[in-house]
Amino acid sequence: MIYDFLYNLTGSSVLAGFLIALLPLFAFILPFALFAVLLERKVAGHIQDRLGPMRVGYHGILQTIADIIKLVQKEDIIAKENDKLFFNIAPVLTFVGSYAAFAVIPFSSIFLGAKIDLGIFYIIAVTGLVVAGILMAGWASNNKYSLLGAMRSAAQIISYEIPTILVVLSIVMMTGTMSLFDLSENQTGYFWNWYILGGPSMSLQKFLLIPFMLIGFLIIYISTLAEVNRTPFDIPEAESELVSGYHTEYSGMKFAMFFLAEYANMFAVSAIVATMFFGGYQSPFGYLGNSLNMSWLIPLEQFFWFIFKGIFFVFVQMWLRWTLPRLRVDQLMAASWKYLIPIAFVNLLIIGFITLI
Amino acid sequence: MSIKTEEMVLNMGPQHPSTHGVLRLELTLDGEIITKVVPHIGYLHRCFEKHCEVMTYPQVIPYTDRMDYLAAMGNELGYVIGVEKLLGIQVPERVEYIRVIMAELQRIASHLVAIGTYGADIGAFTPFLYCFRDRERILNLFEITCGARLLYNYIWIGGLSHDLHPDFVRLTKEFIREFKPNLKELNNLLTFNKIFIDRTANVGILPLETAINFGITGPMLRASGLKWDLRKDDTYSVYDKFDFEIPVGSGKMGTVGDSWDRYYVRVLEMEESIKIIEQAIAQLPDGDVTSAIPKKIKPPVGHIYSRVENPRGELGYFIVSDGSTSPFRVKVRAPSFVNLQIMDELCRGHLVADVIAILGSVDIVLGEVDR
Amino acid sequence: MKSFEEISELLKNNFSDIQFEFHPEAKFEPYILVPANKIDTVCLFLRDNNDLYFDSLINLSAVDDFNGNKIKDPQGNEIMQGGTMSIYYHLESIKFRHKLLVKVIVDRDNPSVNSVTSIWNCANWHEREAFDLFGINFNNHPDLRRILMPYDWEFGHPLKKDYQNPEFYQGMRVPY
After folding, report:
1. Can you tell me the distance from the alpha carbon of B353 to that of C98, in angstroms, rounded to the nearest whole number?
2. Which end of chain B is more exposed for a tag (fewer CB within 10 A), N or C?
3. What is the ipTM of this complex?
């Protein structure tokens, strides 16, 4: 594991821990956020029959760097009436909430931030900080409309956590473990061992589970779409009816932190969905390293597959954003409470029964 | 013990991404439900009517373009028809046919903007760009004819400023051939999209009696169930030579006269306009477009009211002449000005989010509301 | 569909006490001249009568006839005293497809006429515009205030022929 490697390298557990905490951030999330902003604009452009950014770099690759430079040199405007403490903390809290989830997501079989038994439970608990950050941002902006947007966003996130948790519960019930690392390890083999196709055991149980796993996947994908405030659930952040949402009053680096948090969150939920249903870092076809007898290649391949699956689900999220219109607030709540929760609940019961067979 | 509640007044100010211009809507809310809407206009008042009194009759034409800048051909046509009736001149047939082709192309362009921006307000960003891509091709057609994309000064009193470009007919046929599948794609993407229907059906229902009493005209009136179109019911130019249908709202997805009906009537009208253009191109006669333009325009004393069917409703010009070369008074009956009065009636009892959906379906252009 | 003569007959028979003036010979549009204080009763009749049924007011325009005496006011500007203004009502019946033009003449110095907003709601903003630009006072209008000019414009009514622009409005120089 990377932790052991770093421990041996530095000789101090504190330093190793520190480095491994920083590693996902600098090696992965920041470059990913840069890449994701560009991906979004290119995907949007091509769906809308135009090209997207083309001038900065070859076909616009360096566009995000130009955007970051612009945001960094902007004036940080704080209105006089704002509650300074909360105003400054809110973006940090939102970012921390999204980023802390990466500690327990296995990027590959050797790269895991913290191997704890409560993986998914920890993620769900820590993403609750995002709600606190959003409410703080809305309140501290001292703007009637920001507060309205923030409250709607908080209501939306809280409502859609429940179907998420119900589906997670069904997976936990089926596999008996909450650790994402164990979940990924269980799905080893080829793609028919993935949970979306029933699980690693070849039995009647596996085939019975397939339709319900599919339903569970759809429910959790939709719910996590709502949790990260993406269309069709982007009431809080699009130029909605009256306001620009809870981050109206932010400028410069703080605004950049909200943005970074959003893309990090998108990848985090995509990664969770991929890990729970699609095999995490496992390859669908077997490893090149095995067939070529180079066992050091395997973790790299796993890393590649994990990134590929994560980015694929992020791409689908972007695709949905530019295709569908937006739901109204009451329709959004109705979708969660009246449709998703009952279906998720029934799904849970059925999966429970099947597991007992 | 009862809770004291107060109504909140919220301002959708003159600068707002969804109000299609500088319009101020003062909403009085009870929680999230609207109790009163008061529109405040006048932010774009450019004194068109006062200005007409110091210009000569031909000089007024570029200013009529600028009122409803998204449907400029229709504006010019209305004014020119009025002055030609005052002068008593008859224009060559070729001129009439070309005017009809231009007006119908303009109708398609204007409805594309209405549909695209409506989708963008609801949250679907992609149809907006698809509509504008098709509109670019229409604007290219206008550009090769008269040199301008948006404000033309093309239809003159007694004729036109330029004859058609030699490539115009071929390019128009190409445009029509490529536009028909795009219209189908737009329907699949937006019109029959479940989320879009949920946002617009049964929102802002306009009963027919109210609509007639408030003087509503255009697609809004037709969506409430009445088959009333000035091109058929008070025919002008050569519209009586063409065979086309008048689409009427039928309450397919909700009730008759809701926002989805108003939107769908516009989509169907685009198909009808294509039919008219195809027939006009097939029947286009030869002739000289500038032969009937008089040297000196001095109508006799009198007054006339001429009206055309603009994409937004009935556009009327009340021209009073006192025998000189400048009009004595020109009053413009702008469709958006009259249609905007209905906002208070339509929005009562709806949520704040629906105001945008309703305003988008009324389809106003502030240029002609304020003139 | 009724012709102008038939409509005139119906009006004459129903309102024997009102002095109408019929102008069928007017070159482009025949019109009926109605006295200013009776316009709302006549319009109510026009809307509700089963043979006429004018359920739609297409247009309401005010015109400054500028036919009074030109005099000079204390500042040396040329203004007009006396004279008339006209208000034209274009009516249409959607059911029967006939149209009618009704004209009202009011004094230019203190123009005042009854409002028809209670009959056709369409007239609401048209009358507000006539008030704003010409100064015509509509009695019984639910909400008579300026519509196109700013609400606190106190320098007169712009579309009158002898209107002069003020020098300053709220500190901004007006003629530029």
Report:
1. 41
2. N
3. 0.90
